[in-house]
Design brief:
single chain; 230 residues; four-stranded antiparallel sheet; 5 helices; elongated
Length: 230
């Protein structure tokens, strides 16, 4: 099997208070050995025949609340719905916000086993996709920031190759200073917008917690029924 990329994502669900009241608590999700595991048990028939997960794996993902695990395989997203992986765009959860955790490769290199120097680029790339899903304008500014940083490095290399007292070096030094100032101003703008985005998510999480607290007894009752069958 050729090497493919597997992305593990979290899907934030826009659910009503009643649906949230049915949340049974935290769960674990993992793909290993070509099978989907939920709370440590394999889900027979969870993987559709058209989807080949052989040789691919994820780390153990713990999720709870209005969250469902999603896999992105060969560019297509699949959500776990009713203990089966179904295409996200064909599911009841289509159109909701997606939070990508990371790209995974062969089973021997799941997130649990990756060294830090390999994990960091995965997390950074995942964060960029997360931002792209949530705020296209912010994502565009972050791409511009990276382009400007690369331009600054290129300008620096050109400057350092020139004689110390040359007019061209002084001109490039002035250009570099202007560019660095522009990059810093853009960084500040991006950080402000990142904080605003984080605040929006925090506010939503607090609202969800309040609703769960209001439905405490209903959640306990439903969990009891799930465990005992009554």
């Amino acid at each position: 099997m050729s090497l493919r990329r597997l992305a593990l994502v979290l899907l934030t669900l826009a659910v009503s208070t009643a649906a949230r009241a049915q949340d049974e608590g935290s769960h674990t999700f993992q793909v290993v050995g070509g099978e989907v595991h939920l709370d440590g048990r394999a889900l027979p028939g969870a993987v559709p025949p058209s989807l080949d997960l052989a040789g691919l794996a994820t780390g153990v993902l713990e999720f709870s609340g209005p969250v469902a695990p999603v896999l992105r395989v060969d560019g297509r997203a699949y959500v776990l719905e009713n203990e089966k992986l179904v295409p996200l765009d064909e599911s009841s959860k289509a159109g909701q916000g997606v939070y990508i955790l990371g790209d995974l490769g062969p089973e021997s290199q799941s997130l649990d086993n990756l060294p830090q120097d390999q994990l960091t680029p995965i997390v950074e790339a995942a964060y960029m996709r997360n931002v792209e899903e949530a705020d296209g304008s912010l994502y565009s500014k972050m791409r511009t920031e990276r382009t400007m940083e690369a331009e600054a490095l290129g300008l620096t290399r050109r400057l350092l190759r020139l004689p110390d007292a040359s007019d061209e070096r002084e001109r490039l030094r002035g250009d570099l200073r202007t560019l660095l100032s522009d990059v810093l101003a853009l960084k500040h703008e991006i950080r402000r917008e990142e904080l605003d985005l984080a605040q929006d998510r925090l506010d939503a999480a607090r609202q969800h917690l309040r609703e769960r607290e209001e439905n405490h007894e209903a959640i306990v009752t439903l969990r009891l029924r799930e465990l005992t069958g009554k």
